[in-house]
Amino acid sequence: MRTLDAGNLIQRSYYLALILLITFGLFTISVCAEPDTTTEPSTADIIRSAAADGRLAYKLTTTDQFKAIAGQPTKEWTEEDGEILWMEYASIRAGFLGESDRDKDTSFKLRWLLIKGKKVDIGGILQGERQVIVKNIQDFRKIELRNVDLRNLNLTSEGDYLKDQEFDSLTKWPGLEKLPAGFDPKKLLEEGKNPGLGIRKLHEQGIDGRGIGIAILDQKLLQNHVEYAGRIVRYEERNLPYNQPLPMHGPPIVSIAVGKNCGVAPKAFVFYYAAMTTLEHKVQADCINEIIKYNETNPETGRIRVISISASPEEASDNHAFLKARKKALDTGIIVVTCSSVFLDYGRLNLIEGRDPDKPENYRVSGYGGPGCKLNIPTGNKTIATHQGTNVYKYERDGGHSWAAPYIAGLAALAFQVNPDVQPETIVEQLVKTATHTRIGPVVNPSGFIEAIKNTCKAPAIKSE
User: Which residues of 96-135 are buried (b: 16+ CB within 10 A; e: fewer)?
Assistant: First the structure.
């Protein structure tokens, strides 16, 4: 048996210690050499955090403020004739709409924010899930008042500003004691639903457009708004762009034409063609030709008699197909209402707030209109449906020609109801002939117009060339 002397034991202990030391050193080097797993937050993480804590807010954040948070975009472009600006990052797309502040300086404000194709809640855009909470008068004067929370503010001295501002049924207001004297937004919203000028008296007589079809060619539509639910019997989308913005234009148009509270002809039915975001007027012509064919195979009570287009296709350079279809529609007894003076040179009126909407003297000229026009239509200080939700209404301060066209279209539907044989040109003639003449010019007179249409003999149909 071999024995270990003291020298051998010391030597072996030395080797063992050396091995342990080397092993520990290698382990330490291995641990220290592991890569750092902590990373800088991604742009998407930064954006989500900024949206969550309110640094990115609907209608408040400018393009410069967005870039200060997210950095320079990889791509930037405009749409809708420069009214909408888009910024794109790796997985982020932000949309900004051009808006005017109180001092009239126009800037782009954040409206849409998507990460990997999913909407990010910045307030407002998600139909009231989270609103922009306005905390000071400075921001109050910069922002549109639709779908915002103003309950933190004392607005008693803001009467002059508020009389020109639009708001909606999502807007949260402070108590009446913190609002200007006489300003009651809830009351304005309810009273503003009256189409005015005696329209509701015609409805009480059963003159409400029942059995008459109106075809509306406009933008993409929020189809199930309570104001016109059940009136849309056909809905089709034609040649819409992929990145189309929210359907802001369609709901007001339909509500003014056939809305149960706001509408001129609340019992008319609607064929809706979402076909107006394209510049190809051939698409509109195709829709008109389809409507003509539909009428040829359906009974009289189910015919489309009115086409409403809140644009001026007659004035476009590529309108040959549209003009041809329009003429064919007129020849078959369909009136085509547009915003062009080729159809009718009409202007716009605003109701003087707080006045009786049925009296023509209670209106003032809004934008284009007045004595120089053949007819003036009420469009401002009225309540209309909006795309912000299926039960959301907007108080419109200064409606444009887009809002006047469906008003006329509704009156045309009433005319066809009381006299199915009346011709389109007679409708236009009687709208002008029966107008009430006031100091601000000729104002549409619905009851006088309908009475004249009742007494109009059938005019001979115009033969197609």
Answer: bbebeeeeeeeebbbbbbebeeeebebbbbbebebbbebe
